[in-house]
Amino acid sequence: MTLESFSRRITIRAGNLPKAVNQIVRKSALAIDQTIVMATPVDKGRARSNWIVSLGLPVLTEIEPYAPGSKLGIGEAANAAAAIEQAKSTLNNRQPEQTIYITNNLDYIEKLNRGSSAQAPAMFVEQAIDAGLQAIVGARLNTGRSGGN
User: Fold this and answer.
1) Domain residues of the chain, as ranges?
2) 100/59 Cα distance (integer angstroms)
3) Measured between alpha carbons, how far is 137 from 1 in angstroms, rounded to an integer?
4) pTM for the full model?
């Protein structure tokens, strides 16, 4: 390999770096969101539905459950699926260096996170963040190959 061909390879890979990093960041954010949503205790579906992913600015409002009900229980899936789909859709539009927010503005979400429900352990939000960090560990940046050795 000549110095010139090596330089070309490095330049190509460097140009692909923002896209590759963005892919890892999106994957990590989705892992965090999925873990938080699935760990959130469920009664009527409001808490799960209100995990909202946004780009650039946090969402400051509350929404109604995607699939409202009463005493839905931890096995409830419709609100979880809708919340995760909202996250996937939003994250697919993320541009490099754009800030990702995962918010839940319900006034009782902190109480749930402190362990007020037998359905979820205390600090489930922090555990979800750990899961997102684990999604990064061992991740490989795919910056492509320019051909040759």
Assistant:
1) 7-136
2) 11
3) 32
4) 0.83
